[in-house]
Amino acid sequence: MDEVPLLEIRNLNKVYENGYHADRDVSFSLPSGKLVGLIGPNGCGKTTLMRCINKMHALTSGDILIDGESVLPKTPAEVARIVSNVPAELTASFGLTVFETVMLGRYPYLKNMWWETEEDESMVVETLKKFGVYHLQDRALNMLSSGERQRVMIAKAYVQNPRLMLVDEPTSHLDMKYKLDVMEYLRAMVKQDMTILVAEHDISLMARYCDLCVIMKKGELVAVGDPKKVITEDLIRDVYEVEASVGTDKDGEIFVLPKKYIGEYSL
């Protein structure tokens, strides 16, 4: 008997009210226990796809299944118990502390309207320690560095105890140290009963840390597979319109070195 995929996207289409077709007939599936990179140029449909998965956006057509069950008839609270979300930008923190922010991740499980249980509090404390931000628990979120804030937001998603975690551009504003720091945390978080889908522009970083890569271009799926097999110079040329050198270092890790843009400029 074939194992049911953790995530299955079936012929997903998303057309916005202005007629823009953001995602076109996208279909793929992912097993559990994987760190998966979602890569492609700006405007290729990555963020739209993730917002469809967590029901922030309604599909135009198609279906999204988690553990073989469609998310379409589920309520937002039901989806939040199986899918957690780390957005690319934190739009507002409303003066919340680090502890209060991470506790928000437990809200889909609250049995009372306002009061957390001792179990919720214990889970949050352990998670703060796990992510190295326990000493910051009483500090306002907007007073943290970008790297610290990103770890707090990932901790918030982690305490939801999801089957699928969606992480949108986690390293976009981070320096080299914190890029690696965040990816190490994501790599360590993957477990047999959870998959993490990361939308990211740094191809070399994704190739190094991810088990699989999902590659998109102009709203369409280009490839899904082992980054060491699917990330090639031909693929970079096709997807990004860039000539690049793709090689491996002495440790066998892939690197991508962009060399020249070969598309048309419009000045």
Describe the overall structure.
With 267 residues, this protein is α/β, with parallel strands linked by helices. The protein has two domains: 1-82 and 162-228, P-loop containing nucleotide triphosphate hydrolases (Rossmann fold); 94-158, no CATH class. Helices cover 29% and strands 27% of the residues. Helix 5 (146-158) runs parallel beside helix 6 (176-189). The model has no long low-confidence stretch (mean pLDDT 91).
The CATH architecture classification of the largest domain is 3-Layer(aba) Sandwich
How far from one another are the termini?
A: 56 Å
Provide a count of the helices. 9
Biggest β-sheet, characterized? Answer: 6 strands, mixed
How many distinct folded domains?
A: 2
The gross shape turns out to be globular
> Low-confidence runs (pLDDT<50, min 5 residues)?
none
Which homologous superfamily in CATH is the superfamily of the largest domain? P-loop containing nucleotide triphosphate hydrolases
Strand content: 25-35%
Query: Mean of the pLDDT scores?
Result: 91
Order of strands in the sheet with most strands = 6-7-8-3-9-10
Helix share bin: 25-40%
Which class do the helix and strand fractions yield?
Answer: alpha/beta
- The topology string of helices and strands comes to EEEHEEHEHHHEHEHEEHHEE
Briefly note the CATH topology name of the largest domain: Rossmann fold
